[in-house]
Amino acid sequence: xxxxxxxxxxxxxxxxxxxxxxxxxxxxxxxxxxxxxxxxxxxxxxxxxxxxxxxxxxxxxxxxxxxxxxxxxxxxxxxxx
Length: 81
Fold this sequence. Notes:
Elements (H helix, E strand, L loop, with lengths): L10 E11 L4 E10 L3 E5 L9 E6 L4 E9 L3 E6 L1
Antiparallel strand pairs: 1-2, 1-4, 2-3, 3-6, 4-5, 5-6
């Protein structure tokens, strides 16, 4: 599906992260399942309440501004802005 359109190979990973919204006042735990220079696949409990754009704060200290490209009920693919 989306694999065919990627410019960069995504490396499989299993890293903790947080989706940060509302100027840092709201956070949602997530797991980063794969990662590339241009985006990531995130696993969450539910996508309900998540905005289209947000900041991904990874447990290793990296931060990315993100935009949702696709989603299911518990997964989302994001592009780094």
